Amino acid sequence: MIDTHAHLDHEDDPAAVLARARAAGVSRVISVGSGLASSAATLELASREDGVFAALGFHPHQAGAESDLGALRELLAHPRAVAVGETGLDWFRDYAPRDRQEALFRAQAALAAEVGKALVVHTRAADEDTVAVLRDLVGDTTVVLHCFSSWRLLEPALAHGWYVSFAGNVTYPKAGELRAAAAEVPRDRLLAETDSPYLAPQSVRGKRNEPAHVVHTLAVLAEARAEDPADLEAAIEENADRAFGLP
């Protein structure tokens, strides 16, 4: 199994976290850096740990402070770097000015197209504006909607062939709409993630989330889609290989 979105640089002992993941059958993790220091640490971790790859970028919360795209471009040249992001728009927290968020989102989208890597998108309370940016993408850039949480994004995602990734919140009792959305995503566009250390699945809620717990999300996705978990796991693995160009 693969966890397509985790923040391993937030862990005090990432080696122990990865050991628990492997024991649970999670052999690969895409670790996400946010900002240059975090991205450099994430890339260093990916370079020394088997099965770990890196997504590197500036989170929308950082748009008011960071934007050194030249330095980011250099990090993305590493063979273990497989995606740009997470980047996007967050009108819910509004931790950075909206115009700066959009400018940085567009710049990172252009960078993803330039370097030929997937674009990992964070969007919260900004559905229409996010879609407007993504519709302007140049070429055939792969888009991954990370931690999918808005039914209104489902139609454009399906229309444009974006990958849709579900995190632990799809398992919550009140998340029936998210499970219904998961059932609608084409089999070849579905991904699963933890977004650890955040959003622990319902069966381990209250604990610190980690990549090992993606198996709980997989189980709920399989139930929502009336699919065999092993078959769905294999499909998600293939989707991740294709979306991120994994070896």
Structure description:
With about 250 residues, the protein is α/β, with parallel strands linked by helices. The chain has helices at about 15-25, 35-50, 70-75, 100-115, 125-135, 155-160, 175-185, 215-225, 230-245; strands at about 1-5, 30-35, 50-55, 80-90, 120-125, 145, 165, 190. It has one domain (about 1-245): TIM Barrel (Alpha-Beta Barrel). Helix content is about 40%, strand content about 20%. An 8-stranded parallel beta sheet has the order 1-2-3-4-5-6-7-8. Strand 4 (about 80-90), helix 4 and strand 5 (about 120-125) form a beta-alpha-beta unit. Helix 7 (about 175-185) crosses helix 8 (about 215-225). The mean pLDDT is about 95.
Series of secondary-structure elements, N-terminal to C-terminal: EHEHEHEHEHEHEHEHH
Radius of gyration: 16 Å
CATH class: Alpha Beta
Taken together, the total number of domains comes to 1
Biggest β-sheet: strands ordered side by side in the sheet = 1-2-3-4-5-6-7-8
> What is the third-level CATH name, the topology?
TIM Barrel
The coarse overall form would be globular
Give the proportion of residues in helices.
40-55%
Total number of helices? 9
Number of strands: 8
Measured by DSSP, the beta-strand proportion falls in 15-25%
Topology (SSEs and partners):
Elements (H helix, E strand, L loop, with lengths): L1 E5 L7 H10 L4 E7 L1 H13 L3 E6 L11 H8 L4 E10 L7 H18 L2 E7 L2 H9 L7 E3 L8 H7 L2 E4 L9 H9 L5 E3 L21 H12 L3 H16 L3
Parallel strand pairs: 1-2, 2-3, 3-4, 4-5, 5-6, 6-7, 7-8
